């Protein structure tokens, strides 16, 4: 019971981090025409944050089984 509460709290925290990282003020930091290895920086930021959130959620859920 206690572990599921901790997992739920961590997932809520990951969700809130995602909201902060994907909200408009954070996106405007990377809203430039700059390119990195041929890819727009905003594109890399969006998919990098998305990947980070998925990995954190997977670690949180998989770690709760132990």
Write the layout of secondary structure elements.
Elements: H1 2-22, H2 24-29, E1 35-36, E2 39-40, H3 41-63
Antiparallel strand pairs: 1-2
Helix pairs in contact: 1-3
Average predicted confidence as pLDDT: 87
Gross morphology is elongated
Describe the largest sheet. 2 strands, antiparallel
Alpha carbon gap, first and last residue: 13 Å
Total number of strands: 2
Secondary-structure class = mainly alpha
Textual characterization of the structure:
- By secondary structure, the protein is mainly alpha-helical.
- It has one domain.
- It contains three helices and two strands, in the order ααββα.
- It has a two-stranded antiparallel sheet.
- A hairpin with a 2-residue loop joins strand 1 and strand 2.
- The longest helix is centred in the C-terminal third of the chain and has 23 residues.
- The chain is elongated.
- The protein starts with a helix and ends with a helix.
